[in-house]
Amino acid sequence: MTFLKDNNAYDISFFDMDSTARDFSYNREPVRKKKGKVVKIPHKKIEQIRRRKHNPLRLAVGFALSAIVVAVVAAIIYGQVQLTELNQSIANAQEKLENRQSEYTQMQMKVDSKYTTAIVEEYAQDKLGMYKASNSQKEFVDLSSGDKAEVVSDADKSIFDTIADAISSLWS
Predict the structure, then answer these.
(1) What is the pLDDT of residues 36-65, one digit of tens each?
(2) Taking residues 70-80, what's their average pLDDT?
(3) Percent of the chain having pLDDT more than 70?
(4) Cα–Cα distance measured from residue 135 to residue 156, given in angstroms and rounded to the nearest whole number
(5) Are 24 and 31 within 8 A, CB to CB?
(6) 98/90 Cα distance (integer angstroms)
(7) Can you name the residues that pair with 39 across neighbouring β-strands?
């Protein structure tokens, strides 16, 4: 119950409009209170603190870094756009290929149904007058007599050719 005896925590003079207007007037220098002591800061000093100091080197580095970030992001976006376009063209080509293969299969089935062996044989017999070969038309070749080799020699050999052949036969 000590808080009832001591009224330091309830000093209403801090909230009084007259006292604040007196302490912080616009014509006078502002007053800062610090642990019970009054500290006066000149108006010029406050303006210097409020004013931001720009370092040209920091500005240049910041601008360069932001330009690099923008360039990297732009390159990534451009790459993604190119990738999307290529994927789309591949998908279109695959769809076109599937359509062409389907058309080829349909046409192949039509051709196969039109030109069966029975239809071709009938056309050959009726229109072209062709018939299957009989045994009398077949000619058999006998290869059981064995292999033969014949050496053909030139009769117009000169004496120099025979000498060269004799020397080459010695070496081989």
Answers:
(1) 667 777 888 887 777 777 788 989 999 999
(2) 97
(3) 76
(4) 49
(5) yes
(6) 12
(7) 32
* 107 vs 100: CA distance, rounded Å: 10
List, in sequence order, every residue forming a beta bridge with 40; answer none if it has no partner.
Answer: 31
DSSP string, the chain: -HHHH--GGG-GGGG-HHHHHHHS-SSSPPEEEETTEEEE--HHHHHHHHSPPPPHHHHHHHHHHHHHHHHHHHHHHHHHHHHHHHHHHHHHHHHHHHHHHHHHHHHHHHHHHHS-HHHHHHHHHHTS---PPPGGG------TT---------S---HHHHHHHHHHHHH-
Q: Which two tokens stand for residue 107?
A: 């046409």
Rounded Cα–Cα distance for residues 10 and 12 (Å)? 6
Q: Which one-letter amino acid corresponds to residue 49?
A: I
- pLDDT, the chain, mean: 79
Asked if 29 contacts 41 with a C-beta cutoff of 8 angstroms, the reply is yes
Q: Give Cα separations from 1 to 5, 8, 14 (angstroms).
A: 7, 14, 24
What is the Cα–Cα distance from 142 to 137, expressed in whole angstroms?
A: 16
Integer Cα distance of 141 and 139 in angstroms = 7
